[in-house]
Every structure is written in C-alpha cells, then in structure tokens.
Design a protein that fits this description.
By secondary structure, the protein is mainly beta. It has one domain. Helix content is 13%, strand content 37%. The strands form 3 sheets. The chain has a 7-stranded antiparallel sheet with strand order 3-4-7-11-10-9-8, covered by helices on one side. Strands 1-2-12 form a 3-stranded antiparallel sheet, with no helix packed on it. Strands 5-6 form a two-stranded antiparallel ribbon.
C-alpha cells in the first residue's frame, strides 16, 4: 500500500504534468506583459488596457454618451501597500499607504481625423493646443495637451488621460508616466 502511494506521488510530481485548468475566458490584462509587481487593466469595449502598480486598489465608474459615442472611465485609486501582521498587532504599511488620487480615461471616436492636430482643432476648445509629443504604447500619435492631459490617436479612437493628484496625494504622474509604454490600444 505504501509503495503504491509513493509511486502515485512520484508520477503526480513529474515535470510536464499540468493539473491546473486553463481558463475558458480571457483574463483581464493577461496580454499586457506587466512586470511581476504590477497588475493589468484591460477593457475590450473601451479598446485599451494598461499596467498599474500592484499596490493600487481602485473603484471604477463609467459615463457613456451614446449620442457622441464618448466614454469616460474614472478610477478612484488608493495605494494600499500593507503587509499582514501577526494576530493582535497592527499591519506593517509603507509611508505611501492610504494615499489616493483620481484618474479619468476618456475615449472618443476618431471621426476620420488624419492626425491629432486635426482632431484637437475640430473637437476641443481653441485654447487647448498640442505640446510635447511622446510615445504612448502602440498609439499612432501621442502628445501632451496644454492643460496637462495626455492625448493619443489610435486607428479608430482618440484617448485622453487625465491624472488628478496633488501635494500630499498619490503621485499618479510619476507612476503612470513610467507605464505609458505598457498601454495597448486595440482599435
């Protein structure tokens, strides 16, 4: 009996045996290739995804304007890097624990615009201009707007990223700037 159990244990532990089921639905953010400490967020309906720090927790809200085919996704983000502690003791938290900020990702139809400048001129107030150009994931073109928001042109959409944080709040600017290359625009 003991020999049979030993043989069964040896066979079960052989390399190449996969006892984990393969998910039948796609995993959110699984194709974003985030670094190991990050998590991925991907919204196939909005048409984009990105990596974010694994210590962030967020509440997501959406606002859709069917007439204009516009979508705003808002993320209320809190940094929660606390480690479990033994019973009856306080958790161990880093200095940034509990800091929060707010991020809005707006998605608009490209509406046939040949480039960002054409779209901005047609859709945004005249006081908003394109400033510094930069690379943003797999977008066709990306730039900073004069009000500090980022804007990207994809094959079929325009995406605007607005980061709202300030002194004493979670520093979204430095964290998301480092992750702009992880963005994936689907269409």
């Amino acid at each position: 009996m003991a020999a049979s159990l030993l043989a069964l244990a040896v066979v079960a532990c052989q390399p190449g045996t996969n006892t984990h089921p393969t998910p039948s639905v796609s995993q959110i953010g699984s194709d974003l290739h985030c670094k190991s400490s990050d998590h991925g967020y991907e919204d196939s309906q909005a048409g984009w995804g990105f990596c974010y720090p694994g210590t962030w927790k967020y509440t997501l809200r959406s606002q859709y304007n069917a007439d204009a085919q516009e979508l705003d996704l808002t993320f209320d983000i809190t940094n929660v890097p606390c480690a479990s502690a033994p019973p009856n003791t306080k958790p161990i938290c880093s200095p940034g624990a509990g800091l929060f900020a707010f991020m809005i990702v707006s998605t608009y139809p490209r509406a046939g615009a040949a480039d960002l400048a054409t779209w901005v001129q047609a859709k945004l107030p005249p006081n908003l201009t394109l400033q510094q150009r930069f690379d943003w994931g797999n977008s066709k073109e990306a730039a900073m707007l004069s009000d500090g928001r980022r804007i990207a042109l994809t094959p079929n959409q325009v995406v605007i990223l607005e980061l709202r944080s300030g002194f004493g709040l979670l520093d979204l600017e430095s964290e998301m700037s480092r992750r702009l290359g992880t963005w994936k625009f689907l269409y």
